[in-house]
Design a protein that fits this description.
Helix content is about 15%, strand content about 30%. It has about 160 residues and is of the alpha+beta class. It folds into two domains: about 35 residues; about 100 residues, Immunoglobulin-like, CATH 2.60.40. The strands form three sheets. A four-stranded antiparallel sheet has the order 1-2-7-6, with no helix packed on it. A three-stranded antiparallel sheet has the order 3-4-5, with no helix packed on it. Strand 6 and strand 7 form a beta hairpin. About 5% of the residues have low confidence. Belongs to the small heat shock protein (HSP20) family. It comes from Roseisolibacter agri. This is Heat-shock protein. InterPro entries: A-crystallin/Hsp20_dom, HSP20-like_chaperone, Small_HSP.
């Protein structure tokens, strides 16, 4: 039989109590019933050229991952399945499973059409390349409204 460390048992009991309390509220909130829903932990980094969002998704079938961008919000959704084996009795189950969704408000100034995602070793990595910022430029001014007249850059009236 599996045993646990007493301190971990207390924490698990507190987590279970919270799960049951939140679980009782979930039907009113329109979320899953039963166990509390789960969401993968995330890290967000920024470099000179891109933003990188990483989510821990061990046990999630990559085929169930869905990434959408709508009005500046990136949503990542997926499903971690739980399939008990026939003839086995579960003595301890701590890992949460089921459908998840996380949404992130994106900063302005990234190239929405160049977003790329890959997964390896239970880590989903989403790359959001920054868009090229508009650079200052000089505008030629035509003299006398004539298209054939010479233009003067930066001239002021």
């Amino acid at each position: 039989m599996f045993t646990t460390v007493p301190m971990l048992t207390i924490r698990r009991d507190i987590d279970r109590l919270l799960d049951e309390t939140v679980g009782a509220l979930q039907p009113a909130l329109g979320t899953q019933t039963g166990r509390a829903t789960w969401a993968p932990a995330a890290d967000v980094r920024e470099s000179e050229n891109e933003y990188v969002l990483e989510l821990e998704v061990p046990g999630v079938d990559p085929a169930t991952l869905e990434l959408t961008v709508d009005r500046g919000v990136l949503t990542v959704a997926g499903d971690r399945a739980y399939a008990p084996r026939e003839g086995e009795r579960v003595h301890l189950r701590e890992r949460l499973h089921g459908r998840f969704a996380r949404s992130f408000r994106l900063p302005k100034g990234f190239d929405e059409n160049a977003i790329a995602a890959d997964t390896e070793h239970g880590l989903l990595r989403i790359r959001l390349p920054k868009a090229a910022l508009p650079q200052p430029r000089r505008i030629a001014v035509n003299v006398g409204g004539s298209a054939t007249a010479p233009s003067v850059e930066g001239a002021s009236a």
